[in-house]
Amino acid sequence: MVAINIEADGDVQILQNNYIQSFYADAGLNSLADSASTSALTYSPPSGSSTAKVLVILGSITTASLGTLTLTDGTDSYYINAPSGTGSRRVEFDNIPNALLASFSVTNGLGVALASSGNSLTIIPL
Q1: What is the mean pLDDT of residues 100-119?
Q2: Would you say 66 and 84 are in contact if contact means Cβ atoms under 8 Å apart?
Q3: Higher pLDDT, 37 or 9
Q4: pTM attached to this predicted model
Q5: For residue 21, what pLDDT is reported?
Q6: CATH number among 2.60.120, 2.60.40, 3.40.1350, 1.25.40, domain 2-125
Q7: HSE-CB of 29 using CA atoms within 13 angstroms
Q8: Segments making up each domain of the chain, as ranges
Q9: Which phi and psi angles does 99 have, rounded to 5°?
Q10: What distance in Å separates the CA atoms of residue 98 and residue 30, rounded to the nearest whole number?
Q11: Partner residues linked to 63 by β-bridges
Q12: Among the listed residues 81, 71, 122, the one whose alpha carbon sits nearest the alpha carbon of residue 101
């Protein structure tokens, strides 16, 4: 597993450019319970790309302790440590192998259910 620390981001913006390959408005993240995972998501990368950035926007939540958000294909996992506090979060997984993203899920390990709205996931080929 690879750990990437992030900070809360109160100025959350949806990324818009010509490089977005896949955008999931909800991705099963809305109201995702603590310790639960989304249904499988799939990604078909453009030719010439071997890795991607995964940008996750989380609606406003309050966490009391350090938690994690995890991408997994059932074999390999990448996780982000998220600080405690209140607010929206913008988290980025960099250089995730496209093989993992062929069919993957997101697991909520933040200690609370995610917001009922305002969550999204964007995959950008690198």
Answers
A1: 94
A2: yes
A3: 37
A4: 0.81
A5: 55
A6: 2.60.120
A7: 30
A8: 2-125
A9: -60, -40
A10: 24
A11: 85
A12: 71
118 in Cβ contact with 105 (< 8 Å): no
Question: Pairing state of beta strands 41-42 and 103-109?
Answer: antiparallel
Phi then psi dihedrals of residue 22, to 5 deg: -140, 135
Q: Can you read off the two tokens belonging to residue 86?
A: 């209140």
Across 32-41, 44-53, 77-86, the highest mean pLDDT is recorded for: 32-41
Cα separation, 25 vs 11, whole angstroms: 18
More confident residue, 64 or 38: 38
CB 58 within 8 A of CB 115: yes
* Cα torsion 109, 41, 10, 60: sign: negative
Question: What is the arithmetic mean of pLDDT over 2-27?
Answer: 47
| Highest mean pLDDT out of 40-44, 89-93, 108-112 | 108-112
* Number of residues that this document lists for the chain: 126
In this structure, what token pair is assigned to residue 43?
A: 């990604």
Per DSSP, what are the bridge partners of residue 124?
Answer: 53
For β-strands 103-109 and 51-63, DSSP reports them as unpaired
